[in-house]
Amino acid sequence: MLSSIKGLMTTISEFFRPIVTAQYPEKHLPIADRYMGFPVLMYDDVVDEPYCTGCMVCVRNCPTNCMSAIMKDNPKNESGESKRRKIIDAFEINLGRCILCGICVEVCNFDAIEMSHQHELSVVNRNGNRANLQQLLEMGKSYQKETNWAPPVKPAKESKE
Amino acid sequence: MAEEETTESISEEEVSEDLDPILAERISILENILSTYDISISSFLGEINIHIQKIDLLDILTILKNSPETLCNLFLCLSIVDYEDRFEAVYHLQSTTLNHRYVIKSSLDKDKPLISSCIGIWKGCDWYEREGHDLFGVVFEGHPNLSPLLLYEEFEGYPGRKDFPFNDYKEW
Amino acid sequence: MTNQQSLNSVDMLLNMGPQHPSTHGVFRMVLQIDGERVIDVDPYIGYLHRGSEKLSEGEQYAQIVTLFDRLDYLANFNNELVFCMAVEKLMEVEIPERAEYIRVILCELNRIASHFLFYGTMGMDAGASTPILYGFRDREKIQSVFESVSGARMMHNYFRIGGVKEDLPTDFFEKIYWLIDEIKKGVDQADSLLSFNEIFLNRTRNIGLINAEDAIDYGLTGPNLRASGVSYDLRKNDPYSIYERFDFDIPVGDRGDVWDRYFVRVQEIRESVKIIEQALKQIPDGEITANVRRIARPPEGDIFAHAENPRGDFGVYLVSDGSDKPYRLKIRPPSFCNLMALRHMMRNAYVSDAVMILGSIDIVLGEVDR
Lengths: 161, 172, 370
Prior knowledge:
Strand order of the largest sheet of chain B: 1-2-5-4-3
Strand order of the largest sheet of chain C: 1-4-5
Largest interface: B-C, 42 and 48 residues
Helix content of chain C: 40-55%
CATH class of the domain at 13-111 in chain B: Alpha Beta
Largest sheet of chain C: 3 strands, antiparallel
Oligomer: heterotrimer
Number of domains of chain C: 1
Radius of gyration of chain B: 19 Å
CATH architecture of chain C: Orthogonal Bundle
């Protein structure tokens, strides 16, 4: 009997504390700086092109094979605007298949891919969660703006290819 | 660079293994109590591996469980490894009182993998043996119920084996 | 006088699961019941079989860490630790001190998180719906710390072969002292709310009994074994990582019933807090990863590494052929063995206790089926 009263006292004491839950769609809880949301591609504002050179290292290291990339010769390299000899032509990540492990970010030599803070994935059509280069760069830009993402301190290494 | 370091440390380990008195003592104890059986004992990275003939399996496991020097009362793990030309059943036994672990290895035929069930010694190996039958097609003689455990009844093939292909994923 | 024949009841088969909220996942058991007594129980597993062992034969060592997150999904750090330990043992890598301490702190926090969830679900299984809210609330706090450290709440992929991914965030120490206070408050609440509640005691005492001898025979490990009075904890018995440096006790039960299994876990939360407090005092500065190539290629050989997970003795048997992918990887999931003893525990129990006995084993189907 005594223990039941003790238990009741615990619940009553909790009854008078402020609410800690948040009503989700209206209110979002803050997320950590390191939060790993969907991988996005970074955009180099200085040269006005993506950082990604399409070297495929992330594609090869992805545990779920959720991404694919195609590279092309960089037209801006010939005119001397950019140091990147190759540039990404097409990139696709199946966000429904991505397990948000962060391995792609870790292996990237050019800091071209980052784990963003986006984590809401609901689409109305079956292949709606396949993000192409354009969408990934859009997401990347908003992430860059949100976190004041600084470009890598070292200039991007020369491509090995 | 990293590879050079690892090879160096391996050679050091091999030297120190011969000198480790606890391991040497355990091996001599094992040689003593299992002297009548055809076994070979080796040690690798601080683990004692006992290679046995599969006919002696039950006898040796019973001795290891009951002998006061070993007292391996906890059946830790049974793994089947497919080495292309043969199977290997690997038993890991742990003692909860003496805090040591032995690895017992026994080779099985590739065509007809057959080994005695040790369900009479430990009840805890029941599902491991069912799993071994399920994924590798190893038959455990004396096991009362070798029905599929992880796979469904109609499943064909033994997915644990090396010749079982990975399922190609198709997006749709 | 009634006829003896007519009083005999007919055994009934009761199918429970796979989609049943109190089976803690997709698990099916067929209860053979006579009136209200369970005569026999037939567990069926495999509904969540993803072939992790086979899958990992096709992945590089660094990628397999992600698979281990998904085995025991309530103790992700502990799983990662065991896999990394196995590869490190085979490669004979020396882990930097700071990385070891980070690993221990996170593993113990994960153990606490897992036990808090158990405390909640145990109350739920017994019919008390309040504890689950409290258990989840405290687990949530731990997970928010995990999020700030690893970037993910559950699937961390934070431990690396040879260390950890990145150093602790700068505000970690501030947060963790707050967290420890919250955990201590949470455990005290658990005690006042559930542990010594008469109704809960009456409901859990002397059901699902298993004695020490049978428990070892069935391969029970972890809190389930310790509840039966066997003081077997790998952290003390065969210290791995740096556990020999910490001073803590191993809570042991005496009867091996549902309440013992519950209370051992609640006490373990306190012991884990002790370990974390000591680790925080001792943690040195320095490197967080050893000098290991990203694509690890362990030398040929086989190794077994095991560690004390919240659910018991989690082991990995790794056979390497010298390439960047394992030749064979066998996982010894503690829940798998613990579940084998279910039949023994459930015999002659009442149907209404069946759910509690299953709940007290604290299974995670992710690692049972792999």
